[in-house]
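step: validate -> pass
step: tokenize input -> pass
step: predict -> running
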Amino acid sequence: MQIMAIFHSARAFARNQLRDAWSLVVAPGIAALVPWRLGYGWLRWLSRHSRLYDEALLPTARAAAAFLGADEAALAQQMRLVALLDHCDLYLSLLRRSFRLPWHVRVEGEWPRDGAYVATGFHYGTGHFIFSTFRAAGQTSTALYAKRARADYRGAPVRYWYGGLRIGDVERVSGQPGVFRPHIRKLLDALRDGVPVTALADIPPRLAEQGQRPVRLLDRPMSLPEGLVKLARSRNVPLVPFWTEFDLDQGTRTLVIGEPIDSGDVDAALQILARILDERIRAFPAAWMFWAELPRWVEDAHALHVAADPPAQAGDAAPAQAL
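step: predict -> pass
step: emit ->
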């Protein structure tokens, strides 16, 4: 009986590693090895006829469909395609000797040329090629990552290897080593030395409890962490938002570099970032990765909004009604 249990456990382990290798390496990698029109056609076919990434993708699609009143299957297909593009970008990058972008990835806007800044993205769309745009502007950059430990990938060595490969390519392209939380001092040093810092702004309270501030997002009372704005303010540098816009019919994308945001007023800067994210989510909901977090996010942010806007006390003047 013990031998059979070991056999079944080993078979399940091997099956999971083969699944991860197919979904993270082989399936998206094929698209990087052929002319893009063929490769993109392959990714679109997979997005419609496979069940890749369903474990993480289906709860996200279900939550988005419930919020938007949209078709869950259509959202899942688009989310699968975005995920495939994101994984494929790693192999497209690894196969390129230069830092030039492929023809189907375009850039709109420019990075500041006169000093450091905090390049601020979101858990939205695809972002691997953003690091090539720094090199095209003659700059190196430092990326901030969540803490990563091998123990978190116990039983999933392919996923751990893939994450390391992706971080390694970012460091190759960006020209600077990455920084892992909580070693924020290294980011301060980078900004002091004139090196741009890249990080993502939309972290829910469940994943970053400290330093959340209230914002309005998707017509809901939500929150964003203040850390990136305070980081920029501490070195008197701006935040520069960036995001991806998609043309799924043509298989092209545009990396958009937005206007710099003053970091002097933390709440105002966070609300500008929330507005940008709100516009992007409404334009293409399938690109946002945090739909499943939304109910708890709103719940966790409730106390922040109550503290920022306490209810009127007895005897206070009632607010005028809008006409």
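step: describe -> DSSP finds ten helices and nine strands in the chain.
step: cleanup -> pass
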